[in-house]
Specification:
This protein has 1 helix and 10 strands; from the N terminus they run H-E-E-E-E-E-E-E-E-E-E. It has one domain: Immunoglobulins (Immunoglobulin-like, Sandwich), CATH 2.60.40.10. It is α+β, with helices and mostly antiparallel strands. The protein has a 4-stranded mixed β-sheet, with no helix packed on it. The protein is 12% helix and 27% strand. It is elongated.
């Protein structure tokens, strides 16, 4: 960027701040939450078998952040309602509406909640929990 163009951009930014025209996004995305959490472990389940769970949801909507830039935080627990919302277990790439967990033990039951996070860091607060389901038993 040339020196003149940089000065013009800086002047524009300073003008926005001095006039109060800068809008700070404090509104979380509107998000319906996790729709499904499935895996396929054929035959009898047990032992040291592992499998990824495939999570799926509809895209969140946000007044400022486009859907292609929304990140989804995945919270996992082994008992219903025990997700730790202070720290996500996983976070997705921007704009995706599916996620495959790393391989998880088939001897435990897994529960998941997904929350949308916009570019300003605002998270929705849904608690729509889904128990991981084995579709191949």
């Amino acid at each position: 960027m040339s020196g003149g163009r940089a000065a013009l951009v800086l002047a524009s930014v300073l003008a926005l701040f001095s006039t109060g025209a800068v809008h700070v996004d404090r509104t979380p995305p509107v998000f319906g939450g996790l729709e499904s959490a499935t895996t396929c472990i054929p035959g009898p389940v047990g032992g040291e078998r592992t499998s990824s769970f495939h999570l799926k949801w509809a895209p969140a909507k946000d007044a400022v952040t486009p859907a292609s830039r929304i990140v989804y935080d995945v919270y996992q627990a082994t008992a219903p309602g025990k997700e730790n919302f202070a720290v996500p277990t996983y976070s997705t790439r921007r704009g995706v509406t599916t996620f495959a967990t790393p391989p998880l033990s088939s001897t435990a039951t897994h529960y998941f909640v997904v929350r949308a996070r916009d570019a300003a860091g605002n998270r929705d607060r849904n608690r729509r929990e889904r128990q991981g389901m084995n579709l191949c038993v």
